Amino acid sequence: MAEQDVSNFSSPLSHRLPTVSASQALHNLTSSRSKAISTGLKRLDALLQGREPTLSSQSALPGGLSRSQVTEVYGPPGVGKTTFAMQTCASALHAGNAVVWVDAAQVLVGSRLKDVLAGLRLPDDHGPPSSPAVARSMEDFLDQFHHFTCPTLPHLLALLTHPSPSFPPENTSLIIVDSISTLFATAFPRAIDSFDSNQTSAKKNDAVQWAASRRWSVMGDLISKLGKLAATRYLTILLTSQTATRVRADTGAVLHPSISGTAWDGGISNRIVLYRDWLTLQEGDGSSQGKEVRGARFAGVVKASGVLYSGLGRVVPFTVEKYGLQELEISADSAEPGAASIISAPPLKRKRDQIADSQSEDEDAGSEEEFGWADDDHPLVPEDFTEEHLDSTNGAHDTLFSVGAEAAEDIKS
């Protein structure tokens, strides 16, 4: 008779990760594309699967975020990262799967999620309905929606890196962590003033170096555990993060992901950047100046399925509406349809002979002619777009994690 394990240690024969047979792993790999989660932007879905995008509303091949992968969406504040996550969440819920949403900063707005869920059920004016023809009520969707609130980084690490047997819930296909960079910024502040003011300069520098080293260690461990969680549970993990400013001598101040590093970048399979820019739609003959699209946003595929693209990769224009994301079905005036490549232009400098000798001479010259902003400006998006269509249009973790009672009541109401 085997002796009882009084220390409650795990058996040496037990595995920390579930065993997956080779045939099952091959089946999951081949079927991951067919079970990809749509982002709501068809051309972006195609780019994420390594295909050339098309303007046709009819798409025979599925696309989107593949299973068993970690995807990061970053961008400046107010660009639509949370709405992008809601749109992906609505696609997973409409497919009959469960979704786990983790708030790392602001609490999820329940009424906004309801609008996105309701908007996905509306038929497209130029194609088939964007959701399966299965009658589901809002309560059915919300029953498959699991909401957590992690106020600190240790809460998030405990939830995702040391999950209980009941997490993630059954039939979960998507885990969303909204604004994960906020937790790292709070746990590892970069400013020296955040440390004890009574410490000497040497001790402050040591504290900063220790915090930076610890930050990289935690980031590497977290992204490694997230990759294993996505692979073993056959689900998609979507992370949203902010941007930080980095000053370079050649290009000046540029925005880059707030969370970055060798280990972190290597664990991210897909990386999408969201940003704003001017967009002018010209008429078909190109005779008129064209009209400006207000509220235009762009999704750039920086990395897809582990393949890193140069610059901002391929971009897809869209707008944020009440019922979610609305793709702008426009194409460049070229033989190749789809999103245009983006090339960053270096900052322009004045020549020595263009510098004014006095303030009055400088005012007479005019800033636009002096710097060449009006003539030599290089927009991120080409201006030779032609308009084809533009629409006007619960738990083991309760002791550690707040489920957000107010947010839950807002969603259920």
TrEMBL record:
It is found in: Nucleus. Residues 359-374 have a biased composition (Acidic residues). GO terms for cellular component: Rad51B-Rad51C-Rad51D-XRCC2 complex; Rad51C-XRCC3 complex; replication fork. Keywords: ATP-binding, DNA damage, DNA repair, Hydrolase, Nucleotide-binding, Nucleus. Residues 336-397 are annotated as: Disordered. InterPro entries: HR_Repair_Mediator (IPR052093), P-loop_NTPase (IPR027417), RecA_ATP-bd (IPR020588). Residues 33-243 form the RecA family profile domain. Residues 375-391 have a biased composition (Basic and acidic residues). Gene3D superfamilies: P-loop containing nucleotide triphosphate hydrolases. One of its GO terms (molecular function) is ATP-dependent DNA damage sensor activity. One of its GO terms (biological process) is meiotic DNA recombinase assembly. The keyword Nucleotide-binding applies. The keyword Transmembrane does not apply. PANTHER family: DNA REPAIR PROTEIN RAD51 HOMOLOG 3, DNA REPAIR PROTEIN RAD51 HOMOLOG 3 RAD51C. This is p-loop containing nucleoside triphosphate hydrolase.
